[in-house]
Write the C-alpha cells for this entry.
Amino acid sequence: MDALRDTDIDPKPLQGKRVAIIGYGNQGRAQALNLNDSGIDVVVGLRDRSPSIAGARGDGIATAPLLEAAASADLVMLLAPDEALAAIYRLIERHIREGAALGFSHGLAIRFGFIVPRPDLDVIMVAPKGPGTALRSLYLEGKGMIGLYAVEQDASGHAEALALAYGRALGCGRAGLLPSTFAEECEADLFNEQAVVWGAVPEILIAGFDTLVEAGVSEEVAYMECVGELKLIAELIEARGIAGMREAISNTAELGAVLGGPRIVDDGVRSRMRSILEDIRAGGFSNTLRDEEASAYPRLRAARDRASGLRVEQARRKLID
C-alpha cells in the first residue's frame, strides 16, 4: 500500500470551495486552523450560545449558526462526538446543498448506520491518525500527521479527489495519506482503543504499579518503573520500530522482555482480543455507545471518578508537585 504525498495530490478540488466544520473540539479546532492556514475558506458551525463560539473567533476562524454554516458549504465535515452526529445530521440534512459533500474523520457513524446520507451527496473520510493537538503542532512545524482517506458514496464522480485535497490542506499529505474504507478505519480504531493502546496499556500500567506497591516497593519508584518509562519506549518504537527498540535497550531489559512478554500476552489474551473485535464488528459497542449517551454517560462518569482516586495517580501527584 503506497502512501500519497503532497506532490501526488492535486489541491484544485478544494480551491474556491467552502468547508463547514461542525464541532470545535479536539479535531474540529485543529482541522479548522490548518485549513485556514492552507488558504481554504472555512466556517465553524455551532449551536446558539455554544461556549466554543468565543474560542473559534479568538482563533480568527469565522463562525455561523449550525444550519447556516451547513447551507453555505460545499463540504460539511462532521467532527462532533460520534454519538452526537446522528442528531446533528437530522438537523442539517435538508439544508445541505444538493451535490455537496459530507465528510468525517472517523467511520463509526456510517459503518454502524447512525447516519444514512442523502444519495446526492459525496461521502468522504479523512482521518488523521492522532489527536488534534498533535495534528496542529505538526502542521505549525512544517510537518504532517499520517492519515487515512476513504470514499463511501461517490455521487459526483470526484469524491476521492476531494478527500485527497482535503487531507493535503490538513497537512497530512506531508506525512502520507493511505487508502482505507469507513469500515476498516472504524473497526481498527475501535479495536485499538479497547484492546491495545487506550484500553489494555493503561490497565497493564496500573496492574504493574499495584503489584510492586503490594510487594513493598515505594509508590514513587513503582510509578517511575511502570508508568514513567512508557514515554521512552513509545519514542523508541516511533523512531526505530519494535525490532529497533529491542536493539536499543540493554541485554538485561531485552531478555526480560523476551521471557516476560509472552507470559502476560498469552493465547488467552489473544483470544479475548479476537472477541473484542467480533463484538465491535457485530455492533455491540456502537449500541452501547448510543445507550451511554442516552443515559448521560454513567459508565464514563464512574470510570473517571475511579481513575482520579487510584494510588498510581496519587504517586504521580507526589512526583510532579
